[in-house]
Every structure is written in structure tokens, then in C-alpha cells.
């Protein structure tokens, strides 16, 4: 028999866990599998050969925040959101690589998403060269930073008396609502179910990387969690504070949380992969050079599926009336007319000549405002006969703040 693709059944879960562990170089324990599948299991599809599972792909359901349309009366309203599948647990047996199994899994998923009229699918990629050929485009930037706490503080001190250190039990009761408030403000931010929160608070020791259990700093309008890796060089402290989760829901919460972090005398370095590219933190510090960007990586990837629904779901910063042709090898090309602006958006199929033409992956890259249409055009990934039309659509797709998904999956 050849390779067959089918939806998974509950009896497949242990083999799925074994295969994923092999593919990613991990030994998943019985507890790991119980945590993964008993709390909130993904929906899986599997590739089988002679009855054995040789490939797998899954997805979670998320609500994803998308850019809105600020107005003079409401410069920062709650942003709209969109229900999307988040692709995860993608792996193929090392003995069955380069045989088209991954492609068949991805095509099976995409066909299901198209049949269900999903607006888009999202994922985070372990490798940068895999998913563009399936129509996914890198849609946001993940920034890693390191701050030498001993060299800086806040330029203008703030009242941080509202910040508390909460126990895990108390934090579990208040973090979900604070996260929901933060999520409504940030494009790309993903929802978390109650089951998802339960899993986050398991905080198993084997997943701490030699660091402490999580500590929770909580302000009435935001929070962050962190771990500590203790270290000493003779009498000098070399401990590192690693931010795990970061949801400052207001400017006052942001400043107060950072002032509290920067006052921790028994920490030398604060590091994070959660500080967005446009985070105001450098401008709050007495020395902006104390914050060093150590890496810029692709974060969330987005794959357009039902283009009219996707484009109509978000807001736009200025009025546009444009025909867009989206090139799509898997799902078929589509031409749509987008009429949008601060007052709302309407998008429907069109038969007229396109003003702008771009591949599905390129649309995925600009949709959340994480990358500019003009940049993709300069790279040959978008085409427009009228430069003025491209410039206007580029500005319409821009988003503030920068997208950040905030939840690993």
C-alpha cells in the first residue's frame, strides 16, 4: 500500500506523540502526552503507510485579533478578531522524508479549510524555508532582547505601588481577563481557552530549562511572568530573569511593570522574546543602549484561504477601492474588489482587471501589518501598474501597534 491521509482517531494519539518526539529530538514522557492531549488536544490528520503513522499535522482553534480602523473619536478602540485554525504538531518520520508526505498533509488541511470557508490559517515555523510553498507568509516579527539591568532604569520614575507579586493560584484567577484586554489591542494576538490556561499553569519542572518556576508580576491593567536562572561569579550576581509571558494592557501598566523588574537587585540581565519591535521600552530607559536586540525572527505565519472574508474582516487606515488578484497554486487564483476605509470594509469577487497582483503568501505577510506591501513589491512579490495605487494600498494595510501573537502553539 502507498501513503494514505486520514483524520486521526483517539487510538492514534500515543503514536502521534512518539513520532513528534522523534522528529523534534525529544523524549516525550507519559506525563507530557497526558498534558498535551488531556488538557486541549489538537485536531490531527495523519499519513499512514501499511497501517503505521509516518506523518502528522494538527491544528488548534484560535480567535486572532486583526487590525482595526482608528478614528479621531476613538483612536484606540478594541480591535476586531477572526476565528482561524492554528497549524501545529507537523512532523514526518525521519525514514520517510522527501517523499511528498508533508505536501499531502498540508494539501489535505488546506482542502478542509477551504471547504469550511475558513478565512485563513496560521502557524509558527520551526524552519523558515518550509511553508511559503504552501501559501503561508511570515506575517509578524518576533524580537529577542537583552537588558543589562545594572546599567539603566526608567528615565522618569512612575508609581509602581499597584504592582503585586501573586502566587500561581491567585494569578490563575486574574490573568485570563488581563490577557483578553491586552489581546484586543494587538494585531495577531491569539485567544486562550480555559483549558489552555490550565495547561500554562501546570509549569512542569522538566519544561523550565534549569530555571525557576514562574513568578507573576501583576498590575490592574497588565501582567508579566518570568523565571530566574540563578548565577554568581564569586560575590557578583550573574542571575538572569527571563520573561515568559508579557501582556502590558496600558502605558501605565507597562511602565510600572518594567520599573519593578529593573529594581530587582539580585538580577543582572533581563531577557525576553516577547518585546515587540515597536515596544516603547527603549525610550523609557535612562540609557536606551542598555536594551540590545539579540535576534529578529519570523513569528506568526498566515495563509489566506477565503480571500473576500479575510480582507473584509480587518480595518484599514484610509479609503481604498482596489481590485486585487491573489495567485494561489493550491486553492486557485482569486480576484476581488476591496472597498474599505476607516468606516468599514467590503470585499467581493470581481472580474475586472486587477490593480494589484500578488501571491497568497505575500498577502499573508501584509495582512496583519507586520510587513509593508511596498517592500514586497520591491522584492518582486507584488505587482501594480500604478505606483500611486500601490502606495495607497500599502498605507491602508499598515497597522498600529505592530503584530505579536503572544501565545506559542
UniProtKB/TrEMBL annotation:
<protein>
    <submittedName>
        <fullName>GNAT family N-acetyltransferase</fullName>
        <ecNumber>2.3.1.-</ecNumber>
    </submittedName>
</protein>
<comment type="subunit">
    <text>Homohexamer; trimer of dimers.</text>
</comment>
<comment type="similarity">
    <text>Belongs to the acetyltransferase Eis family.</text>
</comment>
<keyword id="KW-0808">Transferase</keyword>
<dbReference type="InterPro" id="IPR036527">
    <property type="entry name" value="SCP2_sterol-bd_dom_sf"/>
</dbReference>
<feature type="domain" description="N-acetyltransferase">
    <location>
        <begin position="3"/>
        <end position="152"/>
    </location>
</feature>
<dbReference type="InterPro" id="IPR041380">
    <property type="entry name" value="Acetyltransf_17"/>
</dbReference>
<feature type="active site" description="Proton donor">
    <location>
        <position position="131"/>
    </location>
</feature>
<dbReference type="InterPro" id="IPR022902">
    <property type="entry name" value="NAcTrfase_Eis"/>
</dbReference>
<dbReference type="InterPro" id="IPR000182">
    <property type="entry name" value="GNAT_dom"/>
</dbReference>
<dbReference type="Pfam" id="PF13530">
    <property type="entry name" value="SCP2_2"/>
</dbReference>
<dbReference type="Pfam" id="PF17668">
    <property type="entry name" value="Acetyltransf_17"/>
</dbReference>
<feature type="binding site">
    <location>
        <begin position="98"/>
        <end position="103"/>
    </location>
    <ligand>
        <name>acetyl-CoA</name>
    </ligand>
</feature>
<dbReference type="InterPro" id="IPR016181">
    <property type="entry name" value="Acyl_CoA_acyltransferase"/>
</dbReference>
<dbReference type="GO" id="GO:0016746">
    <property type="term" value="F:acyltransferase activity"/>
</dbReference>
<keyword id="KW-0012">Acyltransferase</keyword>
<dbReference type="InterPro" id="IPR051554">
    <property type="entry name" value="Acetyltransferase_Eis"/>
</dbReference>
<feature type="binding site">
    <location>
        <begin position="90"/>
        <end position="92"/>
    </location>
    <ligand>
        <name>acetyl-CoA</name>
    </ligand>
</feature>
<dbReference type="Pfam" id="PF13527">
    <property type="entry name" value="Acetyltransf_9"/>
</dbReference>
<feature type="active site" description="Proton acceptor; via carboxylate">
    <location>
        <position position="409"/>
    </location>
</feature>
<dbReference type="InterPro" id="IPR025559">
    <property type="entry name" value="Eis_dom"/>
</dbReference>
